[in-house]
Records
---
Amino acid sequence: MKTVFISGSGRKDGNTAFLLKNLQEKLGGKFLQLSDYSINHCMGCWSCRSTGFCRHDDDMENEIIPELLFADVIILGSPVYFNNVSSIIKSFMDRTWPLRGKLNNKIGGAVVVGRGYGSESAITAMNSFFLKHDMIPANRGVSGEAFVSGEIVQDQRAIADVEKLAKRIRDLGERVK
């Protein structure tokens, strides 16, 4: 299965990246750090409704969307900010509006890291994204608890949940084939 890991953290080697890369070791695939790309926010102009493409000529349109279309599995990762996903992953999700009908039946996985509150809201946002695109959410998602960079290594439950998510994605991949 072709898997793409999307990190919505501003920290390249932070807690979110740790869990995503742990999952990547189990599944293989490509890791994309959204902060490395130029992604404009959706302006709600709806030009994509008539053209099928976003009017922004940026890295989202030219580099990230082709990866999404090629993938069988899309894993989203985000720190929890103000009880939700980070702004960059929210912009990413908003910018996939032109992909309506093109991501259906791909498998989705959600990974968040926070301080213990707000994680459920962030996972719900990601799973809503998957459902909006008629994707298959693999499970309820992985919720890690950490604040200081590197602290996630102490969350053995989250690390075990990454293993469960990897197994579920492999199982779904076999069934979807």
---
Amino acid sequence: MTDSARFVGLFGPEAQPTRAHPRWTLAFSFWALLYRRTWRGSILSTFVYPTLYLASLGIGLGGLVNHHVGTHSLSLGGVSYLRFVTPGILAASAMQIGINEASWPVMSAIRWQRSYLAQCATPLRVIDVLFGHLAWIAFRLLFACAVFVGISAGFGVVRTPASLLEILAAALLGLAFATPMAALAARFTGDEAFSTINRLLIIPLFLFSGTFFPIAQLPGALQFVARLTPLYHGVVLCRALSEGHLLAWSNLGDLAYLLALATLGILFGSRTYSRRLER
């Protein structure tokens, strides 16, 4: 049987690995097929929430901020509050999507629906299962970030073609959170830890990493802590790109930080997935 006969499309039920379609793409296709059945549940988070955030914070609160500090306040980098806060909301949304996609779905694939175990019962290796899921998370991040940037363009925030690079930067930020989260989720035996991580880590990052106001407004010790967080580096990177500033040396440091964190998460995940799925 020829390769073309054995491979009925990337998402076909009879799909087989080929040179053009390595094994991890089959794991990716599982998540794509699953999303075809559940996509309606993501409409709010993908389309509605970004619009509400931009309208309420960027325009509503932004009108008040601009009235008191001035549209061109140096504390906001000489831009309106809407232009200041939009890249921060994009980065924070990418963080939340990355965490959500790599927490309960990973645990479900191991403990409840056991889709990981079913995949490992096929010729797929553990690393294929991991890469396939992470590739799907990356796709989800790119799509959601692209939608957000498209919505923000309707608010007049996107002004230069370089702003489109925000999509890649925000997706990388989401992966920098998703890869360590997936590695941890493969170790957990229950989902109680996810709520703790959300309350004690994600919400403080959302509030104090420069998303809604410059971290210069924080006390000195908290400024130092904020500069260590991945979200801060993602916000700074997205904010620079939104203003059309291509990567400066400082932004290359932000980019390297996020790449290193995502890579370490993959390495950690390859170990935790192997220990959990090869028992």
